Amino acid sequence: xxxxxxxxxAYIKIGIFGFGGGYAMLSxxxxxxxxxxxxxxxxxxxxxxxxxxxxxxxxxxxxxYIGYVAPASVDPALASPLWGITGSVxxxxxxxxxxxxxxxxxxxxxxxxxxxGVIKSIFSGLRPVVVGLIASAAIMLMNxxxxxxxxxRWQLMTNIAISVAAFCLVFFPIPWKGKKIKLHPIxxxxxxxxxxxxxxxx
Length: 202
What we know:
By secondary structure, the chain is mainly α. Helix content is 75%, strand content 3%. The protein has helices at 2-17, 26-33, 41-53, 58-74, 81-113, 117-140, 144-147, 153-171, 185-201; strands at residues 174-176, 179-181. A two-stranded antiparallel sheet has the order 1-2. Strand 1 (174-176) and strand 2 form a beta hairpin.
């Protein structure tokens, strides 16, 4: 039970201080769950990938997933699915409830004072910070666990090529029948999964 108290406390802190949304809070999540050894860095990057592929906010999805797998990783006696489901529920509630109450109060406060010069100045400072936090999360994910887990050079180059191709497909419009279209990220994720299966699975 001590582990579940630590899990709740970790995600309460993430819920309170995870400014900027799911991607911005990834560095907090990584320190909270990989630092103590609850899960490996490789598992964390896999969880981020799965959380991105599934519907819903990445912060909540990753909390649900980590809450499920972490108990068994920490203590083999907690390997039962029931303990995993318990961890999922506790982690998800712990990360959601602080944000829920903070947003509830903040929305009420901002609605009353939205014309205030102080509030406008605060948001002018917060916007670039959020961009910086998201950039930090992107850099954090550029690690060996994502790009070269086996230490093989050709896999490193292949994974970099897949990453660059995915960025270009999502960011740059593609000329098509006289129009310019942007591919949906879900379609790019499916293409990357197919490419991974062909390159590494066959």
